[in-house]
């Protein structure tokens, strides 16, 4: 749970997705809180799909759920887990910077 409105969390999340290499937002809900994106691997261009949704807890509290997975193969060597962890750290940093 994060102490910011859901719309602000969603906007910041979209900024992070747009800043990532080889990443494309392919669908977004009208309210901007549900986002589907893909990211292609650098060498072979394998596609990973990233689904996310921001949930409003109260007027000033929200949270995000993110699911990243490979669209081919059986195992991704932990790439998707590391991606989500890294992006969550970026999200936290950006939100902390915007509070200053």
Structural class: alpha+beta
Number of helices: 2
3D shape: elongated
What is the terminal-to-terminal distance? 20 Å
Main sheet strand line-up: 1-2-3-4
Number of strands: 4
Helix content: 25-40%
Order of helices and strands: HEEEEH
Percentage of residues in DSSP E strands = 35-45%
Low-confidence stretches: none
Mean pLDDT over the residues: 93
- Major β-sheet annotation: 4 strands, antiparallel
Radius of gyration: 14 Å
Give a verbal description of the structure.
The structure is a single chain. The protein is of the alpha+beta class and 100 residues long. The chain is 35% helix and 35% strand. Strands 1-2-3-4 form a 4-stranded antiparallel β-sheet. A hairpin with a 5-residue loop joins strand 1 (23-28) and strand 2. Helix 1 (6-19) crosses helix 2.
Quick recap:
With 100 residues, the chain is α+β, with helices and mostly antiparallel strands.
Key features of this structure:
100 residues; alpha+beta; four-stranded antiparallel sheet; 2 helices; 4 strands
Q: What order do the helices and strands come in, and which of them pair?
A:
Blueprint: H1 6-19, E1 23-28, E2 34-40, E3 47-58, E4 61-70, H2 79-99
Antiparallel strand pairs: 1-2, 2-3, 3-4
């Amino acid at each position: 749970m994060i102490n910011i409105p859901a719309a602000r969390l969603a906007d910041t999340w979209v900024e992070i997705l747009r800043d990532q290499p080889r990443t494309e937002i392919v669908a977004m809900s009208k309210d901007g809180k549900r986002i589907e994106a893909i990211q292609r691997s650098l060498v072979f261009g394998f596609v990973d799909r990233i689904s996310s949704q921001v949930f409003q807890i109260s007027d000033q509290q929200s949270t995000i759920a993110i699911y990243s997975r490979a669209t081919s193969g059986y195992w991704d060597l932990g790439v998707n887990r590391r991606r989500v962890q890294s992006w969550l750290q970026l999200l936290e940093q950006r939100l902390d910077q915007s509070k200053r």
